[in-house]
Amino acid sequence: MPNLSQFLTIFELRNAEKLILLNANELKDAHIPPFQPDFPVLLWGEAPLDLDAIRIILQTTYADSHPLRLSAKSGAITKLDLGLLISSKQDSEINAIYIPPLEVGTSLSAFQEIVAHLRAPDGCPWDKKQTHQTLRQHLLEESYEALEAMDAGDATGMAEEFGDLLLQIVLNAQIATETGDFRMGDIIKGIYDKIVRRHPHVFGEIEVDGVGQVLKNWEQLKEQERKDNGDAEKGILDGVPLSFPALNQSQEYQDRAARVGFDWPEIDGVLDKLMEEIEEIREAKNGKELASEIGDLFSVLVNFARWQGVDAESALRGANMRFKARFGYIEKYARENEIPMTEMTLGEMEDLWQEAKKTEL
User: Fold this and answer.
1) Fold that domain 235-307 belongs to in CATH
2) End-to-end Cα, the chain, rounded Å
3) pLDDT tens track for 172-215
4) What fold, for 4-99?
């Protein structure tokens, strides 16, 4: 096996500056490349390398057109795009792969660096003034914009909005680093440990039979965490943020309660309850009772949505967008025909509403 200097010579690399040298065995159980993609990487091992497995892992980060250089035991170099990295008999002598770096700004550490620069003395006046509290509204807005892209199935929009969300996380982490409260490493290590701890059926010896048992185990693990953290008096629902939108909050409450068995055995019970709540609305004697019964009706509708695997918040958001589009259709007709909407009859508007619905098909 050649040493590093020999590999540098083989691949015509001038020096090892920023070069990541990685044994192919490190990829054995990996699902993504265990290195920064904006650094050059020299992957080596005993021939033959498992090129198919290496390709699949690299494709999670690099495009199929990403150029590679392969070295054989003889020292021969082959240039090949990632998508064509397929195991074959003639490749049985391959013992090293050089992976050129992606462009600057494609790693989390590179992004952390520019955010830290924004907060540095020679950075941006606006960013330097921000605190956790001043960024709160921005985090909320970016979350809703990400949800909007997700609801629209807009992949390009999702990529952009997730980036905006990442900015909020990294910026808050940088502020906490400066105040000495915590660092990005604490955030990542904390959620890393939590995911491993709450998935003993993946990373441990526990066996589960289906999603239902996974969720039940999840709640048991969270209950033990509350005890370990001195929060034994907190209930299952206490972890749901009070700042959640009401529909999200209702669905999460009911979902968590169902995980421990507090749920209708069949969906017929939900439907019966739905009809019961409608009747109670009819029988409400005053505004206070009516408001309470309407709230109960919403709650049962959310439970019905949960049973059907529908996100209630997204469903209502979709209905709102359809209402806006259909009403906009009526407005456009009135505007183009110079008819004041206040002079249109309900029947005319209903006809236009139905026309608008047909355009959605």
Assistant:
1) Helix Hairpins (1.10.287)
2) 64
3) 999 999 999 999 999 999 999 999 988 888 888 888 787 877 77
4) 3.30.950
